[in-house]
Design goal:
Elements: H1 2-33, H2 49-69, H3 73-91, H4 97-116
Length: 126
């Protein structure tokens, strides 16, 4: 019984902490979206800068909020995992390890959430 409580508390900390930290990257992108001037963003997979920017906002902002509250958590973690894979393995492929380290850490967090789910302290479990 105690380990179940600990597991669920650990999943809540991982889910809320990881999503909260990811939002610190997503919120500035949303602010840039509504700011003045053209959207300047990289095009790591060849679909264009604007579609790439919208996909990253979807993952780092909208999906992060869903994971934070624990709603459709596993589904919401998939775009985040894909975004972090692109960031680490394509966008920062030629950069030193320190440049891709954050992406890899987020990847590790959200792959874990994808496999383990949100835990008992989430909207999904209510």
């Amino acid at each position: 019984m105690k380990s179940s409580l600990q597991n669920n508390l650990g999943l809540a900390i991982l889910r809320i902490g990881g999503a909260g930290l990811l939002l610190t990257h997503g919120i500035p992108k949303v602010q840039r979206l509504f700011g003045d001037g053209p959207i300047e963003f990289s095009d790591p997979i060849g679909i264009g800068a604007v579609p790439s920017f919208f996909l990253v906002i979807f993952a780092e902002f909208l999906c992060a909020i869903l994971v934070l509250i624990g709603f459709k958590t596993r589904w919401a973690s998939i775009p985040i995992v894909i975004s972090m894979l692109v960031a680490a393995l394509i966008r920062h492929a030629d950069d030193p390890f320190g440049s891709k380290e954050k992406s890899l850490l987020f990847l590790l967090i959200f792959v874990t959430i994808l496999f383990l789910g949100p835990g008992a302290y989430s909207v999904d479990k209510k």
